[in-house]
Design goal:
The chain has helices spanning 7-34, 41-52, 57-75. The chain has 81 residues and is mainly α. It is built from 3 helices and no strands. It is 73% helix and 0% strand.
């Protein structure tokens, strides 16, 4: 007698992980908005992926602040050194 392929269980597991991932993503975005980080959902996703890849959190936050300061200087017409 043939054994079940197990695809139904795999699909259910994949669906559950996707639902959990979306819930976690929504919670992270809510926390970001609550803390008034000013990060767009796309930028926040990039930051989360970088953290998951092993980027040091403090280094990432310092980079975000530096980029924001440089962008503010550019939009104010100041030179960036």
């Amino acid at each position: 007698m043939p054994e079940p392929s197990g695809n139904e269980g795999d699909n259910a597991n994949l669906y559950a992980r996707l639902q959990q991932s979306q819930l976690i993503r929504a919670n992270i975005q809510n926390i970001s908005q609550f803390l008034n980080t000013g990060l767009s959902p796309e930028t926040l996703d990039i930051c989360v992926k970088l953290l998951e890849a092993g980027v040091h959190p403090q280094s990432l936050s310092e980079s975000v602040v530096l980029i924001r300061n440089q962008m503010a200087a550019i939009s104010n017409g100041e030179g960036v050194e």
